[in-house]
């Protein structure tokens, strides 16, 4: 029986993970569940899954969570705040940690799980983008396995030889990440000037949290994924390509030196990637319907429109610049996306905020977590100042 700490249980990845867990009660148990502020949703999940530990990351809500759990006759222990998340990730309550918190808020618990040698199922791509080298060091220290949950990286992982291969030795020529193109594929910049948060969150193929939905609409999601692929697979920026594939059936591809191209296909449903990562190296039912090739009929591929959607190039530039740049890119993006979702920033200004933050970035490198968090805060302050300036 594998005990699972699901950090970000009330989100979209959280729900898909619990769906797979519930299909395999002999194999998996959700022993830890976390939520940020939604106490009622967390209590409802605790009723169903009976974890040993419930974590509320907003410490102000700890008392309310304890009260509501006890009123429901549930005896789960309660932890709160960012420190509670770290304890839940590293402690003895679970063998496997699913990192499904959105944004930089997931960084410290992800690192803690890696350092503690847990089997780490990584959905929280922002933590790799911010701290790829720190995460690699933490994994080396802990000795546990990292299984990518992001569908593209899960696909690449499935198409590579087992273990953590050296790409050159394995004969890999390049990694090709597929992108759906998001809800605004084919639009021109004049049309993008007026799009609303709800339009940006109406993704054609996937139902996801609002932050990653906006990232998909700007193509920053693919940019973050290029950086994620660099750190997870040791591929240089020049070895990672992006192709737009609007059906989201081919989840990514690996091209080999001999001309072979291996791809992973399936219906767009995150439960496939999650089930693979949970059971790896075994395969289990995920509740996902079989791919109907005849009904699918077509698989289209086209180049990304990098003139209209500039965030993809900004991410490549940040990867090439190295050092702090990916962390600054991520911080500026998180602030700009939050402002867009709040109605404080037009869609096309997201990229402008990120570009300006990258231009004014201090020349520094990341030596440890404290200096990284410090740089993250500085970049966020810069981004907020730029956003306020654009609004006035
Ligand atoms: P979501 O918004 O649906 O859920 C986010 C979860 O994180 C919730 O449980 C929420 O309570 C928690 N959370 C939010 N802010 C927090 C904070 N400050 N501290 C602690 N917890 C906090 O997001 P999602 O779509 O499930 O995405 C989660 C992560 O997985 C993201 O990093 C995203 O990029 C990645 N991802 C998601 C998908 C998808 O299909 N949804 C696919 C690939 C990767
Ligand atoms: Mg993805």
Can you walk through the features of this model?
The structure is a single chain. The protein folds into 3 domains: about 1-150, NAD(P)-binding Rossmann-like Domain (Rossmann fold, 3-Layer(aba) Sandwich), CATH 3.40.50.720; about 150-305, no CATH class; about 320-390, Rna Polymerase Sigma Factor, Chain: A (Orthogonal Bundle), CATH 1.10.1740. The protein is about 45% helix and about 15% strand. The protein contains 17 helices and 11 strands. It has helices at about 10-25, 40-50, 60-70, 80-90, 105-115, 125-140, 150-160, 190, 195-200, 210-220, 220-235, 270-280, 295, 310-320, 325-340, 350-360, 370-390, and strands at about 1-5, 30-35, 55, 75-80, 95-100, 120, 145-150, 170-180, 240-245, 250-255, 260-265. It has a 7-stranded parallel β-sheet, sandwiched between helices. Helix 5 (about 105-115) packs parallel to helix 6 (about 125-140), helix 10 (about 210-220) packs across helix 15 and helix 16 (about 350-360) packs across helix 17 (about 370-390). The radius of gyration is 20 Å and the shape is globular. Bound molecules: nicotinamide-adenine-dinucleotide (NAD) and magnesium ion. The site of magnesium ion (MG) has 4 residues, from helix 7. Nicotinamide-adenine-dinucleotide binds near residues 36, 100, 125 and 150.
């Amino acid at each position: 029986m594998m005990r699972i700490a699901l950090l970000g249980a009330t989100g979209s990845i959280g729900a898909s993970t619990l769906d797979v867990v519930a299909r395999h009660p002999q194999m998996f148990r959700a022993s830890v569940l976390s939520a940020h502020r939604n106490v009622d949703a967390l209590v409802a999940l605790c009723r169903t899954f009976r974890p040993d530990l419930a974590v509320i990351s907003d410490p102000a809500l700890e008392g309310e969570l304890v009260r509501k759990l006890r009123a429901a006759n549930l005896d789960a222990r309660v932890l709160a705040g960012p420190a509670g998340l770290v304890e839940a990730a590293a402690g003895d309550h679970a063998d496997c940690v699913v990192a499904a918190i959105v944004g930089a808020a997931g960084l410290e618990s992800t690192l803690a799980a890696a350092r503690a040698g847990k089997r780490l199922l990584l959905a929280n791509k922002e933590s790799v983008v911010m701290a790829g080298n720190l995460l690699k060091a933490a994994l080396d220290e802990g000795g546990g396995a990292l299984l990518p949950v992001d569908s593209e990286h899960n696909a690449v992982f499935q198409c590579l030889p087992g273990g953590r291969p050296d790409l050159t030795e394995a004969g890999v020529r390049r990694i090709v990440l597929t992108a759906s193109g998001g809800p605004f594929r084919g639009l021109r910049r004049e049309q993008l000037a007026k799009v609303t948060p709800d339009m940006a969150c109406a993704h054609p193929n996937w139902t996801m949290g609002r932050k990653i939905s906006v990232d998909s609409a700007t193509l920053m999601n693919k940019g973050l994924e290029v950086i994620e692929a660099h750190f997870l697979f040791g591929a240089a920026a020049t070895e990672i390509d992006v192709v737009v594939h609007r059906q989201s059936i081919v989840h990514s591809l690996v091209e080999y030196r001999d001309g072979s191209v291996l791809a992973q296909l399936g219906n767009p449903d995150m439960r496939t990637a999650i089930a693979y990562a949970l059971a790896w190296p075994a395969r289990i039912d995920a509740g996902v319907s079989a791919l109907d090739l005849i009904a699918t009929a077509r698989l289209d591929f086209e180049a990304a429109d990098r003139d209209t959607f500039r965030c993809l190039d900004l991410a490549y530039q940040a990867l090439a610049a190295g050092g702090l740049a990916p962390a600054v890119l991520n911080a500026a993006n998180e602030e700009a996306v939050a402002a867009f979702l709040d109605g404080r920033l037009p869609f096309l200004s997201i990229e402008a905020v990120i570009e300006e933050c990258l231009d004014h970035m201090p020349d520094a490198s990341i030596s440890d977590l404290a200096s990284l968090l410090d740089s993250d805060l500085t970049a966020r302050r810069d981004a907020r100042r730029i956003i306020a300036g654009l609004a006035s």
